[in-house]
TrEMBL record:
It is found in: Cytoplasm. InterPro entries: AB_hydrolase_fold (IPR029058), Esterase-like (IPR000801), S-formylglutathione_hydrol (IPR014186). GO terms for molecular function: carboxylic ester hydrolase activity; identical protein binding; S-formylglutathione hydrolase activity. The active site is at S149 (charge relay system), D226 (charge relay system), H260 (charge relay system). This is S-formylglutathione hydrolase. It is an enzyme of class 3 (hydrolase). Its EC number is 3.1.2.12. It comes from the Eukaryota. The gene is ESD. One of its GO terms (cellular component) is cytosol. One of its GO terms (biological process) is formaldehyde catabolic process. Keywords: Cytoplasm, Hydrolase, Serine esterase.
Amino acid sequence: MALKQISSNKCFGGLQKVFEHDSVELKCKMKFAIYLPPKAETGKCPALYWLSGLTCTEQNFISKSGYHQAASEHGLVVIAPDTSPRGCNIKGEDETWDFGTGAGFYVDATEDPWKTNYRMYSYVTEELPQLINTNFPVDPQKMSIFGHSMGGHGALICALKNPGKYKSVSAFAPICNPVLCPWGKKAFSGYLGTDQSKWEAYDATHLVKACPGTQLDILIDQGKDDQFLSDGQLLPDNFIAACTEKKIPVVFRLQEGYDHSYYFIATFITNHIRHHAKYLNA
């Protein structure tokens, strides 16, 4: 599959690149960002996937999080895809900020008119890794995933739905129980229809409850002053309770004074990179 390089910038000895390609799953042109650390010049490196939140593109994480130095030091290739298909000309996809463009919610839609293009789950878990494994110096056996908000939800469900695929998972302020929050109800009813049993397949809290057990060591950071936490959009307590019941190890850190922004992410990103490096470089 042909890749078109959009940009390339040297950063901490490595290269931050952005590529465009024609997606088979999403049936549109998609961009993704990829950081190649200095170690990638001489051998294969582990791959760490980042999933961004509502309204984001591949640019937000690479320009605001400050992850490059830690990724360079630990020798990790970091991939950040876009958050939805683009330019599909579906009626209604640009009407609101929390549904449609920039709000793919990392599900495979089953409802018209979304089901043809809005297949972000399959894109992130299958098509994109195959593309990366074919075109870049990564070790296909060493892959982890993390994300923020809607992307934190995405990271958790990708890891929980695919035992053994990812070595580790972490999240910043993830949407933990989308079947019960306004964002999730809106997205899932639109993409998946009114049968709420179908929603549970993309809900981290429900996936944990149905989980036979996992080796995943889950790390979550949540800002205590996050407006979406107090608004009931994130519901981490439900996820923590489910993990506790299933004896699934999860480290949940409520960070005093922090909100939902990239200032919060930038503060703790090195800690998350280190968390993943522990498993990816083992």
